[in-house]
Amino acid sequence: MTAHDTPAASVLETIGETPLVELDAAPQSVPVYAKVETFNPGGSVKDRIGKHILQRLLERGEVSSGGTVVEPTAGNTGIGMAIAARQLDLQPVFVVPDGFSEEKERLMAALGAEVVNVPGEGGMSGATDRAREIAEQREDAVVPQQFATPLNAEAHYETTGQEILDTLGEEIGAVVAGVGSGGTLMGIARAVSERVPGVRVVAVEPEGSTFGTLLGEAREEADYKTEGIGTHDPDVAELLDPDAIDEIVAVSDREAHAELNRLAAEEGHLVGSSAGAASVAARETAERIAEGDLDAPAETVATVFPDSGERYLSKNIYGSFEAWEGKA
Ligand code: PMP
């Protein structure tokens, strides 16, 4: 945990060092630990990359103080990057495809960002094109591009992954994380596998997403409600290295929803749907290790809860599955 014996100089210093909490609903013999990223000031794992990416871009002179940062994002990255940008004297502009959670947009605006909406049909690639156009029109603007910049995974290599190692030492059998850009999983996997050779690396996507095709698995493209992970265009996640992943697990919306509701009611974790999916996959992995069905260098599993369920109240995340699906 963050040392509280000295005051933080700014909110930026409060990012990271989040608690790693043992889950109740895991096999006795193989504990599951979740890095609870809702403890970050912007409420998600993305505060880490906002801070790291912008600090490095400033150090490298790719943008200077007073300049603009333009990023295509569905939300959490915008929130994290808005916090860092304003503290580092940069103006944040975010290009958001329609259809994502409204709370996230409001939070980005509250944090001093300009929000530009683009039609949802164009997806993240439409948002990226628009972000580049905006950057070209402004003087001293940079598009960090979380889906392409190695600084994204580097943030997790240097912070999230090291923190998990600091807490668990080499007692890590598997790391399990949802994949959007792939930065979280790749950074943690790289840090942990340096110290724990053979650690099992498990990516998580919603059913209907097609990252699994990168490992030659059959996938049927379909819509899904789980937010923040998954894709219909696996090539978009340039950071994701299929050779570094042992398995890509698909979790249905129904399972993710049931699990995030269980996590709230039984374990006191207010987390979003991507955390629900990660928890399902992490518990399954732990059960397979406990039953001797999976080779792993230790009998523990580490996972990540990326953000809070409060961010999706307007989408009826708590309660019946039908209400979340928009069918009730
Ligand atoms: N969960 C949520 C809620 C997210 O916003 C994101 C980022 N899109 C992820 C998980 C996945 O993180 P990453 O981009 O590092 O793969």
Automatic annotation (TrEMBL):
InterPro entries: Cys_Synth/Cystath_Beta-Synth (IPR050214), P-phosphate_BS (IPR001216), TrpB-like_PALP (IPR001926), TrpB-like_PALP_sf (IPR036052). It holds the Pfam family PALP. Keywords: Amino-acid biosynthesis, Cysteine biosynthesis, Pyridoxal phosphate, Transferase. One of its GO terms (molecular function) is transferase activity. One of its GO terms (biological process) is cysteine biosynthetic process from serine. Its cofactor is pyridoxal 5'-phosphate. Residues 12-306 form the Tryptophan synthase beta chain-like PALP domain. Belongs to the cysteine synthase/cystathionine beta-synthase family. This is Cysteine synthase. The lineage of its organism: Archaea, Methanobacteriati, Methanobacteriota, Stenosarchaea group, Halobacteria.
